Amino acid sequence: MTNNPLVSVIIPCYNQGNYLAETLKSVFTQTYELWECFIVDDGSTDNTKEVALDWCQKDSRYNYIEKKNGGVASARNAGLSQFKGQYIQILDGDDLIEKDKFYDSLKAFDKLKIHIVFSNYIYLKEGIRFLPARPIDTTCLNYESYLSSFGKKFVTPIHTAIFDAKCLEDYRFDETLSFSEDWIMWLSIFKKHPKCFLIDAPHAIYRLHNSSSTSNPQTVRRKALEIRQKLYGQLEEKDRTILFHSMTSEYYQTIEEILQSKTYKAGEIVKKVLAIFSPLNRRKSKINRL
Length: 290
What we know:
This protein is α/β, with parallel strands linked by helices. It contains 9 helices and 9 strands. It has helices at 17-28, 48-58, 72-80, 101-111, 143-149, 181-190, 217-232, 237-261, 266-289, and strands at 7-13, 35-42, 62-67, 87-90, 96-97, 116-125, 128-130, 161-164, 196-207. Strands 1, 2, 3, 4, 5, 6, 7, 8 and 9 form a 9-stranded mixed sheet that branches. The longest helix is centred in the last third of the chain and has 25 residues, at 237-261. The chain is globular and about 50 Å long. The N and C termini lie far apart (56 Å). The model is unreliable at 286-290 (pLDDT under 50).
């Protein structure tokens, strides 16, 4: 590498004391050593603070930020207000990165004029690692794919990426959201058509566990529809068309899954999903009549 840039690591955490030490160790063992790490404690009530402060005592590159609980978006924003690095790694408090992630990513930044370096990822559940059904593919790294297919045909967990700091220096996560804040970030970034590079090796490890916000597929799908409804009115007309067709297929899949579940709450959930979708359907019909 022609220079020695600083990597700023932002780790939001809330009641993840059981996992945090392993997460921080995955940063500590990086073969590229010029980094700073901000551990943002979002009002945890477990031993998160003790774990974080223990690592801060071990290594001055760690910095502890304590704040009132406000959600993962506000915790990430607290870290973004502090970073000094040329590159940014966002890493949730229960996920991991492999030891060569920084080194391999910075080699790519050094050789290519790019804004984001992605690595592929693997899942970790109860000590077992396994590949995702749909690894990251370079064909999905564009605005149209994120708008129409993110969360359905592919995902890019946020810690798979290292960002040129210019991508995020003026960006702040939407703190009104408790779901899909990553997707909104990706849309904002890819609207500007950044140049990306993919390291096709699993340098990021995504932990799956029952307390994860993504553990219930029906809840995930319903919340995703709610976010898409909120986003719909903010888009240009051509982008609304892309999103509308995406939501149509997702809507029918949601209804089918709920009806097949045969739970006593199915009727109420169907009503909620219909309430989300119907206003968009009316707007689309109006557009088609014009």
